[in-house]
Every structure is written in structure tokens, then in C-alpha cells.
Design goal:
The protein is an alpha/beta fold. The protein has eight helices and 14 strands. It has two domains: about 140 residues, 3-Layer(aba) Sandwich (Rossmann fold), CATH 3.40.50.720; about 150 residues, 2-Layer Sandwich (Dihydrodipicolinate Reductase, domain 2). Strand 13 and strand 14 form a beta hairpin.
């Protein structure tokens, strides 16, 4: 079986994990890693036995697929250049900072028959994957995503695009209805952008999702609670377990509770393996460019609502 030739563009905190996991895959040849920080590029390349590059364009003609793990504002430019060279792309979330950039990437990928996968990593969490088999028709969803301690990684975008977009993506993947209304508030605390935000999504089906994300917290939390007819699900993404509370059929006051626990596993490994499988088999990715765009669109609508609540000019990111 021919090995898929892969590169990683951006080998900072997360990108180096991409490189390390590709390097261990039997069906992958990690050709090179790219970073403008030459010392970092050399260090990572040495650890994974790959070539170090300082300009992503040096990978052109050498690879079949690439992970793009650079600051979000650079996603659009770099991904468009890679797609134009016939390279399948996995782009870390959020897909881009603007819908125009997202649309361009979708067009480039679809018109060329290329794989465009968006790195919404939580989709590969075993608790989230198992949750979907337990769903009926969600009527109320509540999520909390709190990061601790505060650090400046990810602050090139606000908390909505940094953290909340994980839960936006999950909710959009399980609610089969169009959005009707968004209400949102948020404030900057330790950075120049929004650090804590709350959004309330109203769907045409009647489902309501209340989403909170903060990168300033005394403790870590990644939980989603789902309420539906005759059942309540509490999904702990961090500890990878699900609590299911169900009403016993025809008995109003009697309920049963089940605790489902899952192995910690390796969500990033699964995400990358799925991407490579799509590249090899030419099958649709787990999280497509169109799904990434939809999550981005809702995230930008939320940031606009926050700006409105703060009486600030609207974000220009929507275009």
C-alpha cells in the first residue's frame, strides 16, 4: 500500500502533536514540518525524523495532504494556496475568520475534488460519538466549556471562535432544525477580545441551546446536558462519560439512571486517522468544509450579537 505523503504547517503547541502522530502511522510518510520559528521547526523535525521548512510553499509538489495548524487569521491564505496545488487539507478550527474565506476554500476543494476536513476535535471524543446513539429529539441543551488557567494561546481570536465553536459545532450536528434567533452577551477580561461569553440559540423546532464558554475560570469543564422527552443526558467530555436518566415507561415518578464510561482513547489520533482514510479512499471527511462553515457562521452571528449588546460596531468578519 502506497504511503500518503503528509506535511504539517505550524508546529507550535498543537501542531507538534499532529507531527508526532503522523510520524507513528504506518500508512503515512511525514515529509516535512513548517514553522516560521526556525528553531522550533528544527526541533520538531528532529523529533519526528522529517525535513524542516520555514516557508509552507516548499512543501508543494512533495506531499498529498497537509495539516494546517497556524494562527486562525492565516488559515484562509495558506489553505487556499495548498488546495490550488491539489493538496488535501485538514484545517484546525475555526475554519477561517471570515465567511468569504470559508466559501473560497469550499469552492476550491469541491471544484478540484479535494478533501477539506475541519479540525473540530470534540467530534472524535468517544462520549460525543456515543451520545448520538442515545438522542431522541433534543428540546433543551446546556453546555459549559471553561478553560483554566488562562494563557495567551488562542487569543488571536475571541472565546467564541476559540472555545465556544466546539459546542456550536456539536449542537448543530445533533439539532435537525434551522436557527430562528440568537441572543448573546460577553465581555473581555484579561485579553483585548471577548474572554467569556454566553449565547442562547433558538431553533425553529422549539429546541433551545444555552452555551457558555470562558477562558478564565478556576477549574476546567467541558460538559453538555441534553433534555428530551423521557430522558436527560449529561455528557462529560473531559472525563469521557455519560449519565443517562430515563423515565420508566408508563410510570411518571419512576426513573432509572445509567452511567456510561469510555476509555480515554486519543481523539487527535482518531481525527488524523480519519483524515488519512478520507484521503486514501476519497470519501467525505467526518467534518466537512460546509459543516465548518456553518459553525463559523453561527459563531460570527454570536459575536455580532455580543457587539450589539456592548453597543459596539458590528464585526466585519461576517462577509
Amino acid at each position: 500500500m502506497r504511503k500518503i505523503k503528509v506535511g504539517v504547517i505550524g508546529v507550535g503547541y498543537l501542531g507538534r502533536f499532529h507531527a508526532e502522530k503522523y510520524a507513528k502511522m504506518d500508512n503515512v510518510d511525514l515529509v516535512g514540518v513548517v514553522d516560521i520559528n526556525q528553531e522550533r521547526a528544527h526541533l520538531v523535525s528532529k523529533n519526528v525524523a522529517a525535513q524542516a521548512y520555514f516557508d509552507y510553499r516548499e512543501l508543494f509538489g512533495k506531499i498529498d495532504a497537509v495539516s494546517i495548524v497556524v494562527p486562525t487569521p492565516l488559515h484562509g491564505e495558506i489553505a487556499a494556496a495548498c488546495l490550488s496545488q491539489g493538496i488535501d487539507c485538514l484545517i484546525e478550527k475555526p475554519m477561517t475568520t471570515t465567511l468569504d474565506e470559508a466559501d473560497r476554500l469550499i469552492y476550491e476543494a469541491e471544484s478540484r475534488g479535494l478533501i477539506l476536513q475541519i479540525g473540530h476535535l470534540e467530534r472524535f471524543n468517544p462520549a460525543i460519538m456515543a451520545m448520538k446513539d442515545l438522542l431522541g429529539t433534543p428540546m433543551f441543551i446546556e453546555s459549559h466549556r471553561l478553560r483554566s488557567p488562562f494563557h495567551d494561546r488562542g487569543t488571536d481570536v475571541d472565546v467564541v471562535l476559540d472555545l465556544m465553536i466546539h459546542d456550536i459545532d456539536i449542537i448543530l450536528s445533533i439539532v435537525s432544525s434551522n436557527l430562528k434567533e440568537i441572543q448573546a452577551v460577553g465581555v473581555p477580561v484579561l485579553s483585548s477580545s471577548i474572554d467569556i461569553a454566553n449565547a442562547r440559540l433558538h431553533f425553529e423546532s422549539g429546541c433551545v441551546a444555552n452555551i457558555t464558554a470562558s477562558r478564565i475560570s478556576g477549574k476546567q469543564m467541558r460538559k453538555i446536558r441534553i433534555f428530551q422527552e423521557d430522558a436527560y443526558l449529561s455528557v462529560d467530555c473531559a472525563h469521557r462519560n455519560i449519565t443517562v436518566v430515563k423515565r420508566v415507561k408508563n410510570k411518571v415518578s419512576k426513573v432509572i439512571t445509567n452511567e456510561l464510561k469510555f476509555a480515554q482513547g486519543d481523539s487527535l489520533q482518531e481525527e488524523l486517522a480519519t483524515f488519512i482514510r478520507s484521503v486514501r479512499e476519497r470519501t467525505p471527511p467526518m467534518v466537512s468544509g460546509r459543516e465548518g462553515r456553518r459553525a463559523l457562521q453561527v459563531a460570527l452571528m454570536i459575536t455580532d450579537e455580543i457587539a450589539k449588546a456592548m453597543d459596539q460596531p458590528k464585526s466585519q468578519n461576517r462577509a
